[in-house]
Amino acid sequence: MPERSPAELDAEEFRRLGYAVVDWIAAYRAGVADLPVRPSVAPGFVRAQVDGPLPEQPRPLEELLGLLDDVVVPATTHWQSPNFFGYFPANSSLYSVLGDALSSGLGVQGMLWSTSPAATEVEQSLMDSLAGAIGLDPRFTFAGGGGGVIQDSASSAALVALLAALHRSNPGWRADGVDGLERVYVTAETHSSLAKAVRVAGLGERALHVVGPSPGSLAMSPRALAAAIGADVAAGQRPVLVCPTVGTTGTGAVDPVREITAVAQPHGTWVHVDAAWAGVAALCPEHRHLLDGVEHADSFCTDAHKWLATAFDASLLWVRDACALPAALSITPEYLRNAATESGAVVDYRDWQVPLGRRFRALKLLAVIHGYGLEGLRAHIRGHVALAEQLAAWVRDDPGFALAVPPSLALVCLRVITGDGPEADDAASREVLERVNASGAALLTHTVVDGRYVIRVAIGAVTTDASHVEALWERLRKERG
Amino acid sequence: MPERSPAELDAEEFRRLGYAVVDWIAAYRAGVADLPVRPSVAPGFVRAQVDGPLPEQPRPLEELLGLLDDVVVPATTHWQSPNFFGYFPANSSLYSVLGDALSSGLGVQGMLWSTSPAATEVEQSLMDSLAGAIGLDPRFTFAGGGGGVIQDSASSAALVALLAALHRSNPGWRADGVDGLERVYVTAETHSSLAKAVRVAGLGERALHVVGPSPGSLAMSPRALAAAIGADVAAGQRPVLVCPTVGTTGTGAVDPVREITAVAQPHGTWVHVDAAWAGVAALCPEHRHLLDGVEHADSFCTDAHKWLATAFDASLLWVRDACALPAALSITPEYLRNAATESGAVVDYRDWQVPLGRRFRALKLLAVIHGYGLEGLRAHIRGHVALAEQLAAWVRDDPGFALAVPPSLALVCLRVITGDGPEADDAASREVLERVNASGAALLTHTVVDGRYVIRVAIGAVTTDASHVEALWERLRKERG
């Protein structure tokens, strides 16, 4: 019989290398605040150093760690820096690093209940408990006839919600596909993942109806939505899904979920609430109003990997009908048939997502919740919100700056004021942002509101504290000149 | 100014807890061979122990590790056990655990080049180098005008290939969606992810043409494909994509890629080669024939997370046209605009996939390649293939068993022979499989070939060696009685 000589590590060697990896991560995180947040590298810088044939023989781990130090770190945008204020935060707290390592260590495939009962049920239980912790209506729990699932991203959550909506709106969808009559409602501020989902699902951009805002706001107008749906229905079209956003990417605007569901429901239109960034704030009672009306929606999504201290990927999706996703997505070839599935007593999460395979994602979130406690997570969120309020106060008090919109949770949108009119303010705002980013002292990104260039300050890195926001404010004032 | 008191770990505490996690993983892996591969738990077993409110205050990590020991491990199907022979392997080698932990530690979002130049370029470089290592045509590399990307799964790879094909076949697809004339060609043995992709993309099952096999085989008949495409074209339909499989899930059958591309190309039909399990074997020159004809295909997918020692998720997708996926998938809102993207000099991987966000997945694969060396990975594959050949020889020599089909690489498909006819053999095969699984000594799954129940033995766990295959064979013989 042939023998194998596996190159796999034994326990002792794994412990040695594992400790070295832990040490590397500890040192990286301990020093990340001192690194330029944005690297000053040109396209091709990394490839010039790493291109070439792969090693034929094993190399010591120290070499890989050296490559990280010498090439990767200098060419990395440091999302875990406390001076990172771009996009939205991508919390990868050290607790979640530990939990994710345990998931890799277990190495299970959670596609079916039978391929990992624990991965499935821990996720079900966690999603039910979290629903309670954020004040989501019990009908979104498995106990209440709905249920939660951890997706890779809010993009994928929106896509599967749309697929469930397509199936619900047309029982022939699985057999015959889309029919060209579908309509999906968003605003100009809705995340681009909705447009992407509409494209992926074969509807084409023509299916996308961009509903206008209520006067003086960036939030969806329920009246405009009602008019749009009414006109579409009169024209023989089918209002399949509307996506209100709780905390838009640009400015943190909040669409009126309650009014939107009231408009949508008589038409059987699926309401998917995208609270990717802001939703986790509902852990705090003072922010629970963010969920107002969500009890009437069909699905609700918020990302643990943005502001809830959990390493990507961990997008939390709840649906009010536990059958909705499997009804749309299930396909069972012979090699996936098993007694547990056929008993109907279990959840097979493969039917709640597009990919077949899946990691034990709940573990990293569980590690965070155990590490922080819910109170610690509330403090994490409250701290950032308080910092944003302080920054906004400084902006209000400085004639050289202005708030573009009122701050939303921990997101502050501001503009440079030159006194020379809005075009000059646009140019100055752009220049200040570029100088801040070039300095490496902080990283900011921008958006456009009502045609005007706006600097976004998204506070939320795990280690961001008052000193970092103070330093950012000083830097903004300095770069304004 | 408000102060925060972050609950985040400091370096010293992280090292202490990190070492404990490493120790836990080392102990789990050291002991996994002795655990029942399949847990004997009923639905609800885990929930009954973990349900309840989440902790308000932090809990020590030891409690979480205790939960793993007491609840999770006893309720886990142990994919990393050397006695796991079900489905396909889900290698999560300890090297990849280390690399993945480093990725979580860096905690970058690789959606755009500018949001992590290193994550993007290391992935590009690795995919180019790996293409060379498996003998893929250079036109699949960035240097050759194509390029590679790490997807979460072969399901998602098939989906984005289909979307690129839809766009190529109909320039109006982005605006108008699908038109109902699309046709997609598979076989009865093609993975169910293709049917799922067709459904997700809005084509409906009616778009799916199941092409028959060549006589006496389970492989797609190029002649039947030509007839199907010809008839569809004559009927005014559009042959959008054909998916030949290199190593089907059921039995490891290999569709004739060269002949299929010859049939498809005159019609502009996209050829997506699904080699999810088998493709990595092309690292070995003696298996490189698996790629025969792939140089004429449009896309090629193989999973590092199946048999290439890399923790899920790491599905390797190459396309021959670097513009194909961005052309189909790109959408750029204001908040994602940046100078690097607009220069056209960089790859933004968000446009190569459905989700926006993405991890630094290349790191775990790089850690594996550094740890094993390409020679070590070839030994890993060759060892399993040799074990499969030995098992197949034993089956051939035992009148109580028969091979259902010739072994394919490390997959052996067998049946119990009773002498009482095929129905009795079916029943006996099912019973033997169930007894083996119930014993916990090994885990097997099944398929159906030509209407007959077949036991699949997929050899490929990282630590499986001769002793485990010998034990399996003894167990099979014992349970046959």
Q: Descriptors for this entry?
A:
homodimer; 481 residues; alpha/beta; Aspartate Aminotransferase, domain 2; Aspartate Aminotransferase, domain 1; 3 domains; 7-stranded mixed β-sheet; 4-stranded antiparallel β-sheet; 16 helices
Report the span from N to C terminus of chain A: 77 Å
Strand residue content of chain A: 5-15%
Succession of helices and strands of chain A: HHHHHEHHEHEHEHEEHEHHHEEHEEH
Strand order of the largest sheet of chain A: 1-7-6-5-4-2-3
Précis, in short:
Chain A has 481 residues and is of the alpha/beta class. In chain A, 42% of the residues lie in helices and 11% in strands. The first copy, chain A, has helices at residues 11-31, 45-50, 61-72, 94-106, 117-134, 154-169, 173-176, 192-200, 222-234, 257-264, 304-307, 324-329, 339-343, 362-397, 422-439, 466-480; strands spanning 147-151, 182-186, 208-210, 238-242, 270-274, 299-303, 315-319, 401-403, 411-416, 445-449, 452-458.
Describe this structure in words.
The structure is a homodimer of 481-residue chains. The model of chain A has no long low-confidence stretch (mean pLDDT 96). Chain A has helices at residues 11-31, 45-50, 61-72, 94-106, 117-134, 154-169, 173-176, 192-200, 222-234, 257-264, 304-307, 324-329, 339-343, 362-397, 422-439, 466-480, and strands spanning 147-151, 182-186, 208-210, 238-242, 270-274, 299-303, 315-319, 401-403, 411-416, 445-449, 452-458. In chain A, helix 14 (362-397) packs across helix 16 (466-480) and helix 15 (422-439) crosses helix 16. Chain A is an alpha/beta fold. In chain A, a hairpin with a 2-residue loop joins strand 10 and strand 11. In chain A, strands 1-7-6-5-4-2-3 form a seven-stranded mixed β-sheet, with helices on both faces. A four-stranded antiparallel β-sheet of chain A has the order 8-9-11-10. The first copy, chain A, folds into three domains: 11-34 and 39-76; 108-359, Type I PLP-dependent aspartate aminotransferase-like (Major domain) (Aspartate Aminotransferase, domain 2); 373-480, Aspartate Aminotransferase, domain 1 (Alpha-Beta Complex). The interface between A and B is large, with 181 and 181 residues.
